[in-house]
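Researcher: Please translate sequence to structure tokens.
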Amino acid sequence: MKIASALFCLGAALCAAPASAHGFVSAAAQAAPAAASAPRAGTNLPVYRINPGDELEINVWREDQLQRTVRVLPDGTISFPLVGSIQGAGRTTKEIEQFISAGLAGKYVDGNVPDVTVAVRSPAGLQFSVIGKVKSAGTFTPGRYVTLLEALSLAGGADEFASLDSIVIIRKTDGGLVTIPARLSGILRSKSISADAVRAIPMIESGDTVIVP
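Model: Translation complete:
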């Protein structure tokens, strides 16, 4: 109960604070670079990139027939009239707007395409899993970016016998799966919490699997 309470309080504090494939890649070769590149809790949140399962709302100004609500397919694509199949996963809404505008350009005599707007109606594709020695292992769809600490809170907190300095995040990248080591005992089992320890907490990305041994 104490660990779960600590997770909840610290997770809430982090939210309130201002934002200041194919095969495993060996931990020895990839863990350090991956950990260094992983967004940290104290940094600005990254621009949201579309995930499979997200629901998008697409509007073309004054073109009622080109108003669509679409869901990104598991392969990362969406379909749009006069443009066809579009790779949506991994792109920002601004990038999809530009792609649709370019695809529509040839459909207008003067080439002047009305403003295209793309909005994320539901970030349902932003998912991650937590397994191992936690109280409620599972897959979660938070609808927002979360830190590793908040991810454990959503999973009910770490088990009493969990090895908090041996947590591993498995992340999907273009080059395959990489492992990112994480240490939380200095936060969850310490009488004092340092600012450096809080800043070192990694952000969770869509598709991550957190293993708590």
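Researcher: Any highlights?
Model: The chain has six helices and ten strands.
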